[in-house]
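Lest this sound abstract, we think one record worth quoting, the chain in one-letter code, the fold tokenised, each line plainly labelled:

>
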Amino acid sequence: MEEMKNPAEELDLSEETAAEAQVSAKKNGRKKAVWVVLVVVLLVLAVAAGVGLFLWKSKTKDDATDETKTLFHDGLLIAYFGKKYGFINESGQWVVNPQFDDVYYFQENGLARVKSGEKWGCIDKNGIYVINPQFDSLSNFQKNGLAVVKLGDKYGYIDEKGQYVINPQFDLAMDFQESGLACVWSGDKCGYIDKTGQYVINPQFDYAADFQENGLACVLNDDKWGYINEKGQYVVNPQFDFVESFLGNFQKGSLVRVKTGDVWGYINEAGQYVINPQFDFAGEFQENGLACVGTGSKYGYINRDGQYVINPQFDSAREFQSNGLAWVESGDRWGCIDKTGQYVINPKFNFFEEFQENGLALVEMGEKYGFIDETGEYVVKPQFDEAYGFSEGVAVVAQGDSYGLIDEKGTYVVNPMYPNLAHSMVNGRIAFVNERESLGYLDQNGEEVISAQFRCTLEEKVFTGTDFYDDGYAIVRSKDKCGVIDKDGNIVINPQFDGLGGWGD
């Protein structure tokens, strides 16, 4: 679907995000990246693309329905048939016949966005047009009942009946926020309007983010960042080359990372430096009062006064986890320290993943993978050529080209025997591929509860789209058609569709 883009998405953040990637390991073509503290790109509002089994275009992750984690949304499922989209019910019957060139799931207002030809409109659950297809783009309706539309090269706002509330007149327009304001562009400058379409803050910024609960918004002018209030007055003058969050996250007593020149420091909500710019990398302050910072090629940890609690001595470092440990790198090896900087686990691992809720962490030692506890002791000795984290009490491991399952003690639940397994158990089921490249499912005991009978022809045998949803259904494919099964393998909807719910050709 053609969605409207936020200009912030096109900003070059490569310099900042490059500081995050501190270590990676490769095994059999599998790349694993370990990220340091800062996740800078909070501004990216959408955009996710994936490659995998049966993938064509994911519609399950629509704004209004993603949180449900169910296959059927209000009893309906998007279906693709004969190069057209429609909706089926849980019996596989057409509720809305396939007639659209693109569709999205129904929102709480009972409307679904649909595309006919090159134009977008909205239908009700009977498939009747409530808003005729007439717009070049159409956003989700917000809580205030308004949606952004594009007609020609101008943007405006409509209500749920398709009537213009604000005529198309802007070069770009964003959704209205809880502040009651929306950011819009006129030419190459942006400002804010109210729900009547009147400017509350005239276009004067190169970029402006949404107002937050604190009443502040981050703005860009002449390549410098600052913060304004809802009257358009500068609370923090534009003076920074980069700021922690384009969304503006000041809270009472909080410190925000800012960049001046090539170095980072921390300011308060008044825009005053609490910690002067001096770091090549600066992480977020955590609940323990520490932040990871980098100077030159070394990383350490500071307190809110800017004083080193743990001197910069590590080649790379991560934020502290809830267990009080932080992974640090020294001489191409990783270990764990406590908040005093003392090693709890000496640096000896080539690769690691964060500790999971079960207290175990995946590590690589001597090109083999195993699991350690929070003291650094092996619970499962490194012996696998490949391994993934635990999910629902089991972990996928590989010996050579064969995959199996182990429990949290390292005992095989399923001996390595499958050409491939999905990376995690989800809702009591995990997909496998047999030597005939047919797909089935195992349960947590390793039993083949659903025999290998479904299509899996991708050479990579990636399992995207094979998981069971929370409502107990999974999409499967047989003879080039998609259907739905339950957790016992019973056919709920016969394979007859070219695509379902986001998965298909």
In short: The two ends are 16 Å apart (CA to CA). The helical segments are 14-18. The chain has one helix and 50 strands. Residues 406 and 449 are 18 Å apart (CA to CA).
